[in-house]
Amino acid sequence: MDQNLIAGVLVTPQKRILHPNGDILHALKASGPGYAGFGEAYFSTVHPGAIKGWKRHRRVTLNLVVPIGEIRFVIHDDRPGSPTRGWFTDLALGGDNHARLTVPSGVWMAFQGQGKSLNLLLNIIDEEHDPAEADNVALEFFEYFKS
Fold it and tell me: Do 77 and 42 form a contact (C-beta atoms < 8 A)?
């Protein structure tokens, strides 16, 4: 999977504290890279093999963590003037890769369930959800995911 990061995208390793009765998984601190403020936090599930996307936020910064399962993220930059315009970043979070993915506004994102059962995503955004703030296009629009 492509590890060339689009301008403004961050992958920040997060601490996992092992405990015999259940682990503690860090997600985001106000002092951490990528923190842009708090507006809302929500969970989303994605079934194994299922793909959600493409979506682009016009204002919102995403901070994505996968505490259960594994999710593949594909991000596409078509921002005018961006040094990474035309790039795709393809990476997976969850399992052994406990990290936070920060996605700036203006880039497209889709994601796919990679785990064999429940794949759970935590998204911490810097403003409350507003459906009019985002754009959606059909999965085939960028022809990245092929059967």
Answer: no
Q: Which amino acid is at 38?
A: F
Backbone angle region of 114, left / alpha / beta, with phi > 0 → left and psi within -120 to 50 → alpha:
alpha
Each residue's pLDDT tens digit, 98-121: 999 999 999 999 999 999 999 999
Alpha carbons 88 and 74: distance in angstroms, whole number: 7
Contacts of 79 (CB under 8 A, 6+ apart): 85, 106, 107
**Mean pLDDT, range 66-91, rounded to an integer:** 97
Q: How far apart are CA 121 and CA 135, in angstroms?
A: 20
The C-alpha atoms of residue 69 and residue 115 are separated, in whole angstroms, by: 5
- In whole angstroms, what is the distance from residue 85 CA to residue 49 CA? 28
Gyration radius of the chain's alpha carbons: 15
Cβ pair 92, 46 in contact under 8 A: no
Q: What is the pTM of this model?
A: 0.93
DSSP symbol at 69 = S
